[in-house]
Amino acid sequence: MESLIPVGLTDLQGVYPALNLAVAGIVILLLDAFFPMRSKLLSAWITLIALHLSFTCGLHRLTSGMDETFFHGAVRMDPFTHAFTVIICLASTLAVLSAPKYLRLRDCHYAEYYALILFSVSGMLLFSAAEELIMLFLALETMSIPVYCLVAFTRDNEYSTEASMKYFVMGAFATGFMVYGVALLYGSAGSGYFADLPRGAASSPGLFYSGMTLVLIGFLFKIAAVPFNMWTPDAYEGAPTPVTTFMAEAVKAAPFSGMIKLLIVAFGFSQAVHLWMPAFIGIAILTMVVGNMVALVQTDMKRMLGYSSIAHSGYILVGIVASVKLNSSEALASVLYYLFIYVLMNAGAFGILILFSHKNKDTNAIDDLVGLGRERPWAAAFMGIYTLSLTGIPPLGGFFGKFYIFSYAIKAGLTPLVIVAILTSVMSAFYYLKIIVAMYFREPSDPQHPAAFSYEGYSVFLIAMLCFTAFGVIYFGIFPKTPLTLARLAAASLIPAP
Amino acid sequence: MSYEYAVVVVFMVVGIGMVLAPLVIGKLLRPHNPYPQKNMPYECGKDPFGEAHSMFDIRLYTLMLVYLIFDVEFVTIVPPMLVMANLGVPALLEIFAFIGVLALGLAYLWKHGHLEWVKTV
Amino acid sequence: MILLRYIILAPIAALLLNLLFGRFWSKTTTAFLACGAVFVSFAAAANNCVYMIRKLAVPEMQTIFDPVFSWISVGRVQVPVDLVFDPLSCVMCLIITGVGFLIHVYSVGYMSHDPGFRRFFIYLNLFIAFMLILVLADNLALLFVGWEGVGLCSYLLIGFWHTDMKNASAGKKAFVVNRVGDLGFLLGMLLILAVFGTLSVTDLRELISTAASAMTPASTAVATTICLLLFVGATGKSAQIPLYVWLPDAMAGPTPVSALIHAATMVTAGVYMIARLHFLYALSPVASAVVAAIGAATALFAAVIGLAQNDIKKVLAYSTISQLGYMFLAVGVGAYTFGIFHLTTHAFFKALLFLGSGSVIHAMSGEQDMQRMGGLRRYMPVTYWTFLVGTLAIAGIWPLSGFFSKDEILLSARLASTPVLSGAALFAIGLCAAFLTAFYMGRLFTLTFFGNSRASEETKHHIHESPWTMGGPLILLAVLAAGAGFGLRQFENFLSPIFGHPEEAPHEIKLAIMAVSLLAGITGLALSLYVYLRRPDIPRKISTSASLLCDCIANKFYIDELYEKTVVRLVYIAGIVSHAFDKHVVDRAVNWTGGGLRFGGFMLSFFQSGNVGTYAVWFLIGVLALLHAMGGVHPPPAP
Description:
The complex is a heterotrimer of chains A (about 500), B (about 120) and C (about 650).
Chain A: H1 9-14, H2 16-34, H3 41-64, E1 68-70, E2 75-77, H4 79-105, H5 111-127, H6 133-151, H7 158-189, H8 198-203, H9 205-222, H10 231-238, H11 241-266, H12 270-296, H13 301-326, H14 329-355, H15 372-375, H16 377-391, H17 397-411, H18 415-441, H19 460-478, H20 481-494
Antiparallel strand pairs in A: 1-2
Helix pairs in contact in A: 2-3, 2-5, 3-4, 3-5, 4-5, 4-11, 4-14, 4-19, 4-20, 5-6, 5-11, 6-7, 6-11, 7-9, 7-10, 9-11, 10-11, 10-13, 11-13, 11-14, 12-13, 12-18, 13-14, 13-17, 13-18, 14-16, 14-17, 14-19, 14-20, 16-18, 16-19, 17-18, 17-19
Chain B: H1 6-29, H2 36-39, H3 58-82, H4 84-87, H5 89-112
Chain C: H1 4-21, H2 27-54, E1 64-74, E2 77-85, H3 87-110, H4 117-136, H5 140-158, H6 165-196, H7 201-211, H8 217-237, H9 246-249, H10 255-264, H11 269-276, H12 278-282, H13 285-307, H14 312-332, H15 336-363, H16 381-395, H17 401-415, H18 423-449, H19 457-462, H20 468-483, H21 488-499, H22 507-534, H23 537-545, H24 547-554, H25 559-604, H26 612-631
Antiparallel strand pairs in C: 1-2
């Protein structure tokens, strides 16, 4: 029974980025319980430091090319995982930076916020590392449950609680399918390890493929692919804006990491690919069309960005399909690059909404931004950068993200898919430019309106976040070499060069 | 015409029959002698009051949650105990780490006063 | 030697400073910066010129080359931004910056009361920068940048007082007419690119010098096409028949602008371009002959119209068109050196005349009609004497500069023989034009400065000599206009590395032509002096007896009306049709697409009912569909 000797120190060291965050979360909770302070900035600082440590650790491991397995193969820390560690830590850092101002205005600046974020992020980091079904499921739940709580964080707000309830119910529903899928897969293969799963396809294909479908449905729910997207707009709109930021970036990127790994490692053999690829193409088309079309008629920015994030999931799905079809790490790298840029520009757009939110009222409607260009030229310029990047205007990062993905998709022979993608992204220009039109070209009907642009509560964190994202969107658009090189390094660990 | 689904029909008939049969048999066999005390719902020997569909205090849920966690903890630590001799000291340490984390959670709850029925804020 | 880019950089720096920070400092600073920058450019160009004269003996040192950066690089088409400084661009640079500097200084006085003072100098500096790009460019594409840039500045400056609709539409007219010419230029450029694969003038010259021996009729035809297309561009920019109509209207701009852009520099760009590409024109006798014929025709035609104009600036404008015609005549018959020489002397005396007329207009409180002037000799001595020098120079009176340049052109025309018009015919037309030039200039001078004043009492009260900022440039330009003629031999030598030495004409012909052209000038002047001073009834009699002809001339032969009725009307109708198409077909298609998509989005948003139960139903439907697609069927066997 020697093989049962479980966890060693090396294992713990291996998952250091996730462990570090979990410990930091516990520390924050206990600190707050035993030494309650009026200002919660200490918690914010601890969170930032912990995220920074994980970030640098991930970056260091990525550049040094570490590739090892831990926990008897349940966790594999390969460059792909490290890349997602970097992206997710960055996204969470941005979300944390945007939080203090908003929470203070809403009188709910509690240390639990940071602890919940940290727990969720530690789950995400394991998510991209999981190579075993139970591990994957645990990581998924560790990631999700704190987010359900976070959505309801402004608990006096009925929208917030309603959103949380819906999200939770739908999430539980999806989880149920996923667990069932895990059970089926385990039953067919007799093992939970990704690498062993293809065995099940040979011995009992019926079980295996049903299980595969159900597990993938769990993921499609998390990334808000149509028709599993229904929770997204409601949850995005109801959640406190910093939480929406967190959901739109980190909670979005992490399931992609797990899904990509699962698709390539476990379902990457040709029979399975023949089954899921057409379905994914259909879902990608639906997702892009529905996401962009419904976004056209939204008047609330958070809801609109919710639909836009659905649409962006569609673009990323195109990239995933293309990279699996081409079996090329370059194509997968473009997906990682896209996620990286997406995190930056989305965080910025939500950041502007937070910048102008008030004690009693959010500045969420597009009409609220009328006249921003005149009153707050800098904020309007930043918002312009983010929206143009989301639209995909060169030389901003969003353009190159889309450009790389679409060009690889064309190389993979998915031209019809790319045509749909480009048409829908033209459609998206309409609603993104609506923001710019509102900011610069519309006259406020109410002369008192500019008062809405006063800064109520001022946060250096938030300003730093906005500056960083705006700079990043421009800089990494013009000089995409560094992120692309790192992304190629990461992707090569999952799809070895032929 | 496929007979594969005949299995389902048989399954449903047998399933319904297995529920109905004891009820019908019991109805035929048992004596019928109702009186008020007998018609009252049984509630741990206490006299029930109010509707059965009543709202419980939210604080009860917090306590139940804590209880549940330690319930699960018990279930989780018993199996390793049985093979502790084979696993050795590291496993013991791990179990203590597990208990430790839960204890930290308990400390958090306690300090925040979630274990008090009347909260002193 | 100074790097060429700094010649261009100086005015750009000044204009940026004035543009960005101009409102923080006074008019004096603005003016000082603007003038100083042009002077710096002039000094740099002069420095390079001196350097080049020293190195003239060494053939490979005759050009200064400054590769700035690579601009366009598409496949085998390379368009670098290379600047080149050879004797030709040296002459142009010195004229642009030298005359430009004097006109800048003059403008300080002329525009001193204008609220748009800063804007004016920003435009002027921008113009100088673009003009320098034009003449320093080694690449035709870069030359085209300058070409369009000066067109833009011209548009901005003609419409400088844009609150007046008349000025704004004059600017528009100049811009649109130039566009027509630019189309020709662009086509010619693209054809060069297609045929030679390069736009660099240096490379072109080498290609052609090696290929010249192997000319076939087909390649001659191609060369002719290219040259004619480029010449269309030149007729637009340099106001030749048939695209000259914009220049008289361009006088709506401030007078210094007329002097700088519409007399001395920009309008000569066409001549410069043909001189720059002389090796190309040498391949095509037909194209050269067309250039010469159009030039001669324009010289005569514009001079005739100039006879009947009463606006002092209009007369000068037609005179400019006529003189430009001379230059084209010169380059058309292959006398490039003399064409450029006339360009130089013309820059001096025409700038002088325009500035002098500006001084007059300034003194007359904005009055431009010569019928209301007269007798200004007594009030404005500086203007009077300098204007006199200018008039004598343009009329071609020995020993002023105009005589030398015009005489050489007439001589070259006489000796030339072209496939279109014979040398004698060109010479006769040129001589007629010279006579008419002297006549209308004499008329202008007499009506303005001699006789009794015909101005209103109030205007008369205000007549004053202009300030030194205006007088100084006048005197300097008068000196140049008077003395430049004596530099002819040196000028020939200086340009000889590019154009070679012109052939020496037989001595007797030379003398005869000198005598004839001098005679034409003197007769013209004397006749106009006599008619308008002693017998003012003669013009009236002529206008009554030959009223039809006179009306015709005074109304510029109704050319504008003709264009209006034909070309403009056609374009306008095309515009109406395409507007209707755009509005009813394109716009509707766009709106319906957009509306349809919005409606689709609206309908789709009904799925988002807000009810969790409904969500779950859709979720289930999705699950079932996916299970059907992926899990329900057995996979195909592995390939």
